[in-house]
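Handout for the seminar on molecular recognition.
Each group receives one record of this type.
Step one: identify the two inputs.
Step two: read the structure output and locate the region that could contact protoporphyrin IX containing FE.
Step three: write two sentences on what you found, then compare them with the reference statements printed after the record.
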Amino acid sequence: MTEPVRLEGLAALSAMAELRSGFVRAVQKIHAQHGALVSLSYPRHGRADGGRVILVADSGIAHAVLMDPARFRTSGVYPRLGPAGCPHRRLREGIILANGQAHAAQRRQVMSSLVPALIEAMRPRIAEICREETDAWPSGDVVDLTPLVKRLLRRISLELLFNETDLELGHEVGSALERHAALAFSLPAVLLPFDLPGFQYGHLMRQAERVEAVLLRWIRERRKHPSQDDLLSRLLGDAPGGAIDEADIASQLWTVYGASFHTMSAALGWLVLLLAQHPDEAQRVLESFAERTDRDGRPPRAAHEAILEALRLVSPVPFQIRQAVGEVTLPDTPIQLQDHDVVVLSALVINRGPTFGPDPMAFRPGRWRELDAAAHAELLVFSGGPRACPGRAFTFAVLGAALEAVWRTWRVRLAPGAQLEYRTSITVSARRLPVTLSPQDGAFASVRAKGPALHIAEALRG
Ligand code: HEM
């Protein structure tokens, strides 16, 4: 049984304030100070016993919570704001908030586009898109890799998952959606929910209207030109002009399209940066591509391990949040939760635990040769249980092909004096990736970096 550290009164309020002003960094700090299980009790309007947030960085407890969605339900990808029925609230209603049979049905729809045989068949086209896009990247001057990476991964998602050929429309949806997701996590919008000129909350509500409108446009265009066997046609029930509510489909699309490219762009950005800052590992990956003998399109072992290690060290989805349903005991702890108490599963901290070796903060892909099955099971990159990410295999296929295309073509070097910043919305991602791209010659060298991103991964320093 794991005993929690209980923070109450001022200590809990100050921890909550830290969480609100920078969630990822604060979670790391609180666990470092107080251990793997921390209970924060704070006064809450309408509840005599107050409210509670439990921070969990214990893998056993986290997995037990994830396996029990009936007692620990999801609470949506972003905080609930705005009047009932507004577009911002409507867009939250996708698969993440669904429960029971509705969730199972939506999950089947998504999974049917991501079965292993389909992913295998997609590999050649994924590789082709990766080559086309990365061949067009500019060499020479300092360039921000972030928009280029996003463009690549949006296109893969659009073409392969949604069978969308109107890339202009797809990119328009993608950027509107990203702006909305960023605003949904903006602290001023949450703390000052007033629709007054200049207030972030107003920007958020308007952006939600824009996103919903562009998603509806996408749905209507597709109904005019129906396709088959892709995620969008499945969401439309394979019935052009059918009776399914378009606002419901818009919220499903918001979640599924967003979930596919936000996460993979964040992951590819960190992967490229970590390799650029670790010349020996960069060299190993390059050699592994040069030496590959199999032609099945899978990344060679060194590349696969680099991908896994980057996902472990800077997990793109750094935490999962659950809410207690009624009075429940937090598994393997003496903590009695009340209805609506919040459980934060600190995936980023769990993925840097002692299971992963004596140097968990280092970027060392070779560790995956030493680690046993227990470490693979403990890794919390794609969540777990009945709501685990259905996009795992697709992600590995895409990141493998993207890394190969980038590494065979370009030697990536961080720009001198680069300031590395990060953004937390649904994912944790690099705000900018200022690099120079030169034709690949294997002359890898790290560059001393600075900036807030080093607080979440010192291994980026170089
Ligand atoms: C680096 C890549 C990715 C990472 C790190 C990632 C991570 C995650 C995580 C942690 C969850 C569960 C959240 C929770 O338990 O609350 C999740 C759910 C989900 N992911 Fe991914 N994901 C990735 C790529 C993808 C891709 C490519 C798709 C493609 C469609 C996708 C679709 C989804 C969907 C639909 C869900 C909701 C599943 C459900 O509620 O049943 N993800 N993802």
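Reference statements: The pocket of protoporphyrin IX containing FE is lined by residues 74, 95-96, 107, 110, 161, 256, 259-260, 263-264, 267, 316-317, 320, 381-383, 387, 389-391, 394-395 (CB under 6 Å). The longest strand covers residues 47-56.
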